[in-house]
Amino acid sequence: MDVILHIGAHRTATTCFQHYMRENSESLLARGIGFWGPRRTRAGLFRGVMPVAGAGPAQAQLDRAKGRVSVQLDKAAARGLRYLVVSDENMLGAPRRNLRDLRLYADAGQRMARFAYVFSGAKTRVVLSVRQHDMLWASSLAFGVARGHRLPRAHDLTGIADESRHWREVIEDVACAVPGSPLTVMPYEVFGGRSDDRLARMTGLTGLPDKHAREWMNQSPRLAQLRQILRDRGLDPDRLPEGEGRWMPFTKDQIATLQEAYQDDLFWLCDGADGLATLIEETGPVTAGQTPRADQTTRGHENGIEERRMA
C-alpha cells in the first residue's frame, strides 16, 4: 500500500481537495484508494506528533502517535487498499506562525521529521502544493484578519517581500526530513480547483470521479467582507482600499519581488531541484505560461488563472 502524504500548503485549495475525497469516498474505495483527512487526523490520530504541554515527555508522545498510526495503517492495508491519501496541511506547519514570523513554514523540517518517524515502515510519498507568493500571502493575510489577526503594517509587508525563505528553502527542509520518500511538487496555478487531476497525478490512475472536482471551499474573504469584519471588531474599515474584490495589500514593487521569487523557485524545480523533488506540470513547463511573470501584475487575461482560482 502506497501512503501519500499530502502536506499542503495552506491556501492552495487543500480544503477543496479534501472535500472532493470525502464526497467520493465510496467510489474511490472501489478503486483501492483510501483517505484520511483533517476530520480524522485532528480527532486524536496525530495527537502527540507535535508535543502537547503536560502530556508527558515529547518522545513518549511521539511513540504513542506512531503506534496509533501504525494500527490504523495495518487496518487500511487489511482492507486491500492500494493507496492511502493522508491530506492535512497542518503537517507542514501553522498559518498563524507564518503570519507571526512573516516567513514560510520556519519549522517545516522539524515537523516533517516527526511525521517521517510516525510513518516509518510504510511506503510513503510526499506531495506539496505551492503557490505564487504574492497571492499566497494575500490570501493568508485576508484569512488571518477574518480570524482575528491584526491588519499587517507597512513594515510587515516589506518584511514579507524582502524575506529570503521561499518555496525552495521549504522544499529543501522537507526533503531532508523525509530522505526515503519521493517528494512531488504541484503548482496551485495548475492544479488548484482540479481535485480529480491532482489525485490522478498522485496515484497514476485515470478515470477518477469528477463529481465535486471543481467545487471551491474555504475561500479567503473579499474586501467587502473584510470591511464588515473590521466594523464588527470596532476598527476602521477605511484602513482597507476601495473595491469589492480580492484584497491585495502589497505594492506593485513588492508584488514584482514576490513573483520573481516564485519564478526562481519554479526555475529551480524545473532544473531538477538538486534531485530533491519532482515538479508535476499539466502540459509544458510552468514557466512557459502557467504562472504569471513578475511583470504581469494587472488583472485581466494575464492573471486569469488566479482570477478563476479564488481560494
Strand order of the largest sheet: 2-3-1-4-5-6
Sheet of most strands: 6 strands, parallel
Low-pLDDT runs of 5+ residues are: 283-311
| Structural Rg | 20 Å
SSE order: EHHEHHEHHEHHHEHHHHEH
Number of domains: 1
Q: Count of helices?
A: 14
- CA distance, first residue to last residue: 32 Å
Q: How many E-type strands?
A: 6
What overall form do the CA principal axes indicate?
A: globular
- Strand proportion, as a percent range, falls in 5-15%
Q: Structural class per helix/strand content?
A: alpha/beta
Mean pLDDT level: 90
Share of helix among residues? 40-55%
What keyword list fits this structure?
single chain; 311 residues; alpha/beta; six-stranded parallel beta sheet; globular; disordered C terminus; P-loop_NTPase; Sulfotransferase family protein
Can you walk through the features of this model?
The chain is of the alpha/beta class and 311 residues long. The chain has one domain. Helices cover 46% and strands 9% of the residues. The protein is built from 14 helices and six strands. The protein has a six-stranded parallel beta sheet with strand order 2-3-1-4-5-6, sandwiched between helices. Helix 1 packs across helix 11. The longest helix is centred in the N-terminal third of the chain and has 21 residues. The two termini are 32 Å apart. The C terminus is likely disordered. InterPro entries: P-loop_NTPase. This is Sulfotransferase family protein. It comes from Roseovarius bejariae.
